[in-house]
Structures are given as C-alpha cells and as structure tokens.
Design brief:
Layout lengths: L1 E4 L6 E8 L3 E7 L1 H4 L3 E8 L7 H9 L5 E8 L10 E2 L9 E7 L4 E3 L1 H5 L36 E3 L3 E13 L4 E5 L10 E5 L1
Antiparallel strand pairs: 1-2, 2-11, 3-4, 3-6, 4-5, 7-10, 7-12, 8-9, 10-11
C-alpha cells in the first residue's frame, strides 16, 4: 500500500498498487462445448522448466507461453479471443471492483484474538485471564458440540473485498491503483473483477 496526493485539493488517498497484466487469454469456455461460460487467463511468465508438462501442453495448445498462474473467470464473455492479452486498459478510474485473494495467515491463535472473546478479571488472584471459559455441558451430553468457537488456526483463507474503487490506471507499467486495502500479503496473487 501507499499514498497518493491530489494536486488540486491536496487530499491524501490510501491505495493498493496491483500489477495487473498483461494476462493472455488461454481458453474461452462456452455452453455448447464445456457446459458453462468462462474465460481462462494466465499471469506471471516463467521459464518452461518451472511449469509441469501437462500445464505446459495446455498452454501451448492455445498458443500461450509458460505462466505461473492460471485463473478462470466465470460468467458471460464479452469478446475475448484465445491468444490475445487482457491489460489494465479494461479498467477506468472510478470503476467499482471486487478483489479476491488468500488472506494473511495468523497462525494458531487463542479465542480472544480469533473470535473476539472478552478476557477474564486480571486482579484478586484470578487465573482466568485469557482462558476460553466453559466449552460444554456436564454429564449430558458428556461431550463438546461441533462448531464451538475455540482456539485454532486463524487466517490464510480465501477472502473477497467488495465495494472497492479504481483510483488510477497506469497503462505503461500495467498498474492498478485501488482505493483501500485488499486481501493477502505483499507480493501475493489476487483476482480483480468488475462488479
């Protein structure tokens, strides 16, 4: 993330810089052939040795070189020809977008951080400061029900941030400046969709 200044008003806007493309169209799926409509895009070109042979064969079949990522965007297709590239020019400042990615993993966390539980009393000899408290009933049912909120692994799941807006588009460097924050760590992979 970074900040950009408006030269006229002097206002500061927090933006996330995303390198978006060029993404060659690998395959266009249709209802007649595949049973659903989608477009498959590739991103991040790499040497051929870094891609498995089945994936390399799939890419070469459609006239695309080796790429690290292959993503399918479902829905009706407006144009899109196999072999052509999708660039940041499809977006314009002010467009509403949604961004999906794998959120930052937080590791194993207690109930206070993971589920926003309250802590216990800290004075008068209390030993229940960050403990979860009671988790099940007594002799009946003699077990803890599934789904009880407890300590465990937090984060590292797919998340989608909706209602974001494109602040600016840098066509020369294939950069999108999106107002606000998006899921995932620095240098992570995200999917940008129009609303």
């Amino acid at each position: 993330m970074t900040q950009v200044f408006d030269e006229e008003t002097g206002a500061v806007t927090s933006v996330t810089v995303i390198e978006a493309g060029p993404c060659p169209v690998v395959q266009v799926k249709t209802n007649e052939l595949d049973g659903y409509e989608a477009v498959q895009l590739a991103f991040d070109p790499v040497p051929e040795r870094k891609v498995s042979k089945p994936e390399l064969g799939h890419l070469k079949r459609f006239g695309v070189g080796a790429h690290r990522r292959l993503v399918e965007f479902r829905g009706p297709i407006d144009g899109g020809v196999e072999g052509e590239a999708v660039t940041v020019e499809v977006f314009a400042p002010g467009d509403e977008v949604k961004v999906s990615g794998i959120g930052i993993g937080k590791g194993f966390q207690g109930t206070i951080k993971r589920h926003n539980f309250s802590s216990g009393p800290r004075a008068h000899g209390s030993h229940n400061i960050r403990a979860p408290g009671s988790v099940g009933a007594s002799a009946t049912p003699s077990r803890v029900f599934k789904g009880v909120r407890m300590a465990g692994r937090m984060g590292g799941k797919r998340a989608t941030q909706v209602g974001l807006h494109v602040h600016a588009v840098d066509v020369e460097r294939n950069l999108l400046l999106i107002k606000g924050s998006v899921p995932g760590p620095k240098n992570g992979f995200v999917e940008v969709r129009s609303r």
